[in-house]
């Protein structure tokens, strides 16, 4: 089959376990499951045909054609995360779209690359200050480290959900802190962000929200307060807020 220039520009590529599958608009539907275009595994918990990639309305779509399993779809930059339930579909608009799902005890992931993404990534920069603009946040080294530890599952694996955020006790242990110290630092960073207008960190009557760890991580990822480059900090968690080297490294970003 001869591929035209227009078709080649609309090509997508599915990568799974180091293998690449090119899909063109004229190829029809590309299916993922126990059988199909991409036969992932003979796992009996996996649908024969679970996900379908097809072209319609001038867009590529990811469709869940299964009846029981769901998939988590992310853009890879911490900006978008969607839950693709049975019967739902999502347009494939990013350069890289990461798909994660579990079938029984096994978790799988693959990536869809679009040669011509429809989503334009606008780099962050100076923004106009107005009544709806949140102020810039200045975190101390230990506050920053706390957020990195809470966001570690999401930073290490695309598609990890908010349910994987570690508990306060587990995070304190990861950092080598007492739970009391962790809670005090968490109070401080939540109060700081709340004053800047970040919602969801406080409940009624000025009390802290019960799901504030999830809301804190959600905001930190969306606002790019933390990233994968920060993960090595967890190898040396004995940081102090007066550590000039870390402050200098943060200011140099």
Tell me, what's the shape? elongated
- State the low-pLDDT regions, or none: 124-135, 242-253
Number of strands: 11
* Helix proportion range: 25-40%
Q: How many domains in all?
A: 2
Tell me the fraction of residues in β-strands, as a range.
15-25%
Distance between the first and last residues' Cα: 49 Å
Biggest sheet overview: 6 strands, antiparallel
Major beta sheet, strand line-up:
2-1-11-10-7-8
SS-based structural class?
alpha+beta
Whole-number mean pLDDT = 81
The Rg value, from CA coordinates, equals 21 Å
Taken in chain order, the helices and strands follow as HEEEEEEEEEEEHHHHH
What's the helix count? Answer: 6
Structural features, described:
The protein is of the alpha+beta class and 253 residues long. The chain has 2 domains: 5-114, Tumour Suppressor Smad4, CATH 2.60.200.20; 141-251, no CATH class. Helix content is 26%, strand content 22%. It has a 6-stranded antiparallel beta sheet, with no helix packed on it. Strand 5 and strand 6 form a beta hairpin. Helix 3 crosses helix 4.
